[in-house]
Specification:
The radius of gyration is 18 Å and the shape is flat. By secondary structure, the protein is an all-alpha fold. The relative contact order is 0.08. The longest helix is centred in the last third of the chain and has 25 residues. The protein contains 2 helices and no strands.
Length: 78
């Protein structure tokens, strides 16, 4: 199951993160403010995950590392 693109939780009242508030209209102004803050921070820090290209590159690196770890484990178990 694919997780939602955005998640927003009230950790005081929902510490187990069961109710995603991101799409609830009553939280839209708070949510939009948080998204704007995130975008600003990503821009200021040149966050590689801020673009589809950066996300794809990071995903490819992770998949490559996982494949290498799996191959090493298989060699160790022989």
């Amino acid at each position: 199951m694919k997780p939602p693109q955005w998640e927003l939780y009230d950790l005081q009242n929902d510490p187990f993160e069961r109710e995603n508030l991101a799409e609830k209209p009553e939280f839209s102004s708070h949510f939009e403010r948080l998204k704007a803050s995130l975008a600003k921070w990503q821009n200021e820090t040149d966050d590689p995950l801020a673009t589809e290209q950066g996300l794809a590159a990071m995903t490819a690196q992770i998949e490559q590392m996982e494949a290498q770890q799996k191959a090493a484990a298989e060699l160790k178990n022989k």
